Amino acid sequence: MEYIKGGKHHWLMQRITAIVLVPFILWFVISVVSLTKMDYASARDWIGSTSVAITLISLIILSFYHAQLGLQVIVEDYVHTKSARLAILVLMKCALIFVVISAIFAVLKIALGR
Amino acid sequence: MKTHNRPLSPHLQIYKPQLTSVMSICHRATGVALVAGALLLVWWVIAAAVGPEVFDKVQKFLTSWLGILILFIFTCTLMYHLCNGIRHLFWDAGYGFRLEDVYKSGWITLSIAVLLTSITWIFVIILRTTVI
Ligand code: HEM
């Protein structure tokens, strides 16, 4: 627990994203289980419908934001060298942002390209 | 914050594993595992955006024995982290700190996680075998 500056905000955002994630995760599990046909066309129909696309993008942003906050705590717990810690945190953040942007682009490509 | 009466520095080699410490480390482990699960979801969505050949390959992997095993483990980790996350939120709100309550909520969390995982996969099995 060394993030004294801004630690409160970090802590709070971890809880807020956790609370908001609950309904999203339940929606996700129920939807995926109910998708009985999972071929290319039906997958695209599902991802591309407006409500699913919006919910899915929200879920992805929320999950990775929550995950980033959590991973940051783990790195801060185990990596004690200041420079190494900074490097890992920056790289990790960049990688996660790249993943999220790619995922959003993919959903939008399906949703808008129909 | 009261700090007495709690074990300090739980060196894993020295302390006997207890429900409380094991569940705590499992929350961290499942959190990390869920990042892999989230990447799996992103991979699947990107494959659907790229085209039918790539998507079919991903789909073939996910419906192989290894893929199904991974999805099953993903469900277990997700349900555990979901339930134990809610347990964490109760602690954050200031409830359930008595040692007996910590154990009780631990068992409840585990039971609900097992229940939710079972319900999910019972539905998967029913829907997959009757509709196709
Ligand atoms: C279903 C909704 C979820 C809830 C209610 C939830 C709840 C929580 C809570 C309360 C914490 C803080 C625990 C602590 O202070 O030690 C946490 C940590 C964490 N969560 Fe989640 N979470 C959820 C979903 C996810 C998902 C989908 C991911 C991954 C993409 C994830 C990854 C993590 C990670 C990496 C940590 C850090 C673990 C640690 O610091 O030990 N969580 N979660």
From TrEMBL, chain A:
Q: List this protein's GO terms for biological process.
A: cytochrome complex assembly; tricarboxylic acid cycle
Which cofactors does the annotated protein need, by name? Answer: heme
Compartment(s) where it occurs, according to its Swiss-Prot or TrEMBL record? Cell inner membrane
Determine if Plastid is one of this entry's keywords: no
Domain of life, per UniProt, equals Bacteria
Swiss-Prot/TrEMBL keywords: Cell inner membrane, Cell membrane, Electron transport, Heme, Iron, Membrane, Metal-binding, Transmembrane, Transmembrane helix, Transport, Tricarboxylic acid cycle
Transmembrane intervals: 12-34, 46-65, 86-112
Q: Which biological pathway?
A: Carbohydrate metabolism; tricarboxylic acid cycle
Give one GO term, molecular function aspect: metal ion binding
User: How does this protein sit in the membrane?
Assistant: Multi-pass membrane protein
- Provide a GO CC annotation, any one: plasma membrane
Q: Give the record's subunit note.
A: Part of an enzyme complex containing four subunits: a flavoprotein, an iron-sulfur protein, plus two membrane-anchoring proteins, SdhC and SdhD.
The entry's function note states:
Membrane-anchoring subunit of succinate dehydrogenase (SDH).
Write the protein's name. Succinate dehydrogenase hydrophobic membrane anchor subunit
Q: Which organism is it from?
A: Candidatus Endolissoclinum faulkneri L5
TrEMBL record, chain B:
How does this chain assemble?
Answer: Part of an enzyme complex containing four subunits: a flavoprotein, an iron-sulfur protein, plus two membrane-anchoring proteins, SdhC and SdhD. The complex can form homotrimers.
* Protein family (similarity comment): Belongs to the cytochrome b560 family.
Pfam families according to UniProt: Sdh_cyt (PF01127)
Coiled-coil positions are none
Its placement in the membrane is given as: Multi-pass membrane protein
The annotation note on the cofactor reads: The heme is bound between the two transmembrane subunits.
Q: What is the lineage of its organism?
A: Bacteria, Pseudomonadati, Pseudomonadota, Alphaproteobacteria, Rhodospirillales
Q: What does this protein do?
A: Membrane-anchoring subunit of succinate dehydrogenase (SDH).
Q: What is this protein called?
A: Succinate dehydrogenase cytochrome b556 subunit
According to its UniProt record, where is this protein mainly located?
membrane
Residues noted as binding heme in the record, renumbered to the chain? H81
The cellular component terms of Gene Ontology attached to this UniProt record, alphabetical and capped at eight, are: membrane
Q: Which InterPro entries match?
A: SQR/QFR_C/D (IPR034804), Succ_DH_cyt_bsu_CS (IPR018495), Succ_DH_cytb556 (IPR014314), SuccDH_FuR_B_TM-su (IPR000701)
One GO MF annotation is:
electron transfer activity
> What is the organism field in this record?
Candidatus Endolissoclinum faulkneri L5
NCBIfam families, alphabetized:
succ_dehyd_cytB
Cofactor(s) named in the record: heme
Name its cellular compartments.
Membrane
Q: Which UniProt keywords apply?
A: Heme, Iron, Membrane, Metal-binding, Transmembrane, Transmembrane helix
A GO biological process of this protein is: tricarboxylic acid cycle
The membrane spanning regions, by residue number, are 29-50, 62-82, 107-127
